[in-house]
Amino acid sequence: MAASQNSSIARRRFLKVAAAGTATSLAAPYVVTARKTDSQIIVGEGDYRFEVIHQWPQLPEKFSWQTTHNVAVDKHGFLYVIHQGWLEQPEHPSIFVFDPEGRYVRAFGNQFQGGGHGIEVHEEDGQEFLYVCAYKDIKAFAKLDLYGETVWFRHAPMETGLYAAGEDTNPQNVWGRDRFLPTNMAFLPDGDVLLSDGYGSYFIHRYDTEGNWKSCFGGPGDGQGKFNLPHGIWVDDRPGREPQLVVMDRLHHTLQYLTLEGEYLRTQQGYGLPANADSYKDLIVIPELFARVSILDADNQIVARLGDDSKRIRADKKFKIRTDANLWNAGRFVHPHDACFDNEGNIFVAEWVGTGRVSKLKRLG
């Protein structure tokens, strides 16, 4: 299938969901219009006030953002950003690293150009690694060190019996439930890794740290352990609770909570295309493609919705705002695709926009 056809399919799918989303309850107790104070752009209230710094990390002139997707922070505060990239530019890196001041440090990951999607930092026996997944033409799951050296690189787990012939040996930009199109990862307390095949089979796969496939659960369905695009996954191990898996069931506009073995527990409603999650102390952050970032407290109650421009974005049926930065409003989001906390409770947000955008929400509260 041609890339242009896939783009059209993705747009039709998004518009269909946008129409459905208007019927979904998206109300929240804390929605604050962005305001300027002494040249700062401030969002939120009380303990959840943030200064919004759009385009926080700057690329060298020789590089360009090509639809930013995900962000991650290591224990030293360095930010890792992955963008989709263009298959036609195989020498252009897909992963960029910035220091805690937002200064460019290094870039690598050209093997993910044309499909760069998920990225996470995970510490194992005192050493941190990057876990990366890619979709579209690349269709891969990989483990790297923080300087881009490949530890292992995997394609579709054919032993599952879920995938069409050639998905592991000749991946192409073909979509469907029998295709491998992974989106995000999460890490279990025993050291295993979960990988969500969010655009493909809708199953969640379990691997060990050597990249060996072990099992899977989930698949397509109407909820309660079945999914309609399980885009993001996260192990919720905040203090005072038994660790559970939270799945951002994007096209259902819900969060599903499961045991770490994949058994259904409960559903949280009221989101607009939730895309991923991250946690810090007793908080969890949920970026929503419908133009806002939500923060939940220890009781999973929404305590802030930041940069909300969801009404305007849902009405943008032709994606004009996504592709024209002149239409973006300061302090408002377009399509938050991922968000992560740093070590001080600040938040980085990567948006699914044509020119790419990574914003920093500097915590003031």
Description of the molecule:
The structure is a single chain. The chain is mainly beta and 365 residues long. It has a single domain (3-363), classed as Neuraminidase. It is built from three helices and 26 strands. The strands form six sheets. It has a six-stranded antiparallel sheet, with no helix packed on it. It has a four-stranded antiparallel sheet with strand order 4-5-6-7, with no helix packed on it. A four-stranded antiparallel sheet has the order 8-9-10-11, with no helix packed on it. Strand 20 and strand 21 form a beta hairpin. The protein is globular, with a radius of gyration of 19 Å. The model is unreliable at 1-33 (pLDDT under 50).
Question: Briefly, what is this?
Answer:
By secondary structure, this protein is mainly beta. Helices cover 8% and strands 38% of the residues. The longest helix is centred in the N-terminal third of the chain and has 19 residues, at 3-21.
What topology does this entry show?
Blueprint: H1 3-21, E1 35-37, E2 40-43, E3 50-53, E4 68-73, E5 79-83, E6 95-98, E7 104-108, E8 116-124, E9 127-134, E10 140-145, E11 150-154, E12 184-187, E13 193-196, E14 203-207, E15 213-218, E16 230-236, E17 244-249, E18 254-258, E19 264-268, E20 278-280, E21 283-288, E22 292-296, E23 302-306, H2 310-314, H3 320-323, E24 336-341, E25 347-351, E26 357-363
Antiparallel strand pairs: 1-2, 2-3, 3-26, 4-5, 5-6, 6-7, 8-9, 9-10, 10-11, 12-13, 13-14, 14-15, 16-17, 17-18, 18-19, 20-21, 21-22, 22-23, 24-25, 25-26
